[in-house]
Amino acid sequence: MSFSKDVKKELSKINNLANKKEVEYELYGYLASNNISEEKNYIKYSTENDYNIDRFAKIVRNMGIENFDIDVNGNVFSVKIKKNSFKVFLDFNYNIENVELLKCLVRGLFMGSGSINNPEKKYHLECSVKNKDIASIVVKLMKENDIFMKQRENIIYIKEGEEISKFLAFIGASKSVLEFEEIRVQRSMNNKVNRIVNCKSANLNKVLNASVEQIDAIRKLKQNGKFEKLDDNLKEIATLRLEYPDMPLSELGSKLSNPVGKSGVNYRLKKIISIANNEN
Which of 172-186, 206-220, 248-262, 264-278 has the lowest mean pLDDT? Predict the structure, then answer.
């Protein structure tokens, strides 16, 4: 089962059906979704999610509407209801001041046409709203409750993990929030480990490239017969570099007869490279 379906399964089991006002506002959310269509004297809600259709049917019955059937066509479930049964709901303006009722409306909207990607792969939650005006109202209301959504025409969406977590908590998916946060922590740890590995790999490549340049310069001086003309300090560090091609500069410095630090070793090796590059 997908993460999105798990969330909807949890939301479909929220036990608030005895609260008529909350149920009413959840229905407003469903009706604001882009999965609502109109056919002559009917409105039709369609979905591929059985938890969606089950919740929608319960809410509609709770509002006293009994005359409807659930049709199944392949993977698509649909409910068709006469418009006159919904007149009061279809005239709703979607401006809400009560936070608890807003939670119910947004829950219905997410159930009606929302989706969320598998957070192990990427963070993306979106709801498809029936028109961009209602989408703008929802974005504004959510911002007033410290949840920041973005809008593209009639699509409202979130791409930040923290905001998705806040959204799920807002609509009552507490179990899904815990699962989402667990995945977020694991992703963060994995990304941190990858950054460390990549950084170490980059540093190792840098060290190896520098070592190759140093060894090439030393060999060039040896081939040209110039190596023996170097002063003793340069010859000693050059000999150690040939013997220990992968050794870090600080360790090379500790092996000198008169040990020096990393900067001292780096200075001597750069001087050797400079001498070699100036040789004809």
Answer: 206-220
Residues 6+ apart with CB under 8 A from 158: 123, 124, 125, 126, 147, 148, 149, 150, 164, 167
* 245 backbone dihedrals φ, ψ, rounded to 5°: -65, -25
Provide the whole-model pTM. Answer: 0.69
Q: Is the dihedral of CA 70, 40, 23, 160 positive or negative?
A: positive
Cβ-based burial of 93 (10 A; exposed 0-12, middle 13-18, buried ≥19) = exposed
Q: Helix, strand or coil for residue 276?
A: helix
Q: How many residues does the chain have?
A: 280
Q: How many Cβ atoms sit within 10 Å of the Cβ of residue 92? A: 16
Token pair 């090796």 in the structure block, residue: 269
> What domains lie within the chain, and their CATH numbers?
3-172 (3.10.28.10), 193-277 (no CATH)
The count of C-alpha atoms lying within 13 angstroms of the C-alpha of 209, restricted to the half-sphere facing its C-beta, is 6
Note the pLDDT tens digit of each residue in 163-222. 999 999 999 999 998 888 888 888 777 777 677 777 766 666 776 777 778 888 888 888
Tokens linked to 135: 């989408």
Q: How far, in Å, CA of 22 to CA of 11, rounded?
A: 14
Rounded CA gap, 61 and 266, in Å? 80
**At residue 280, does pLDDT exceed 60?**
no
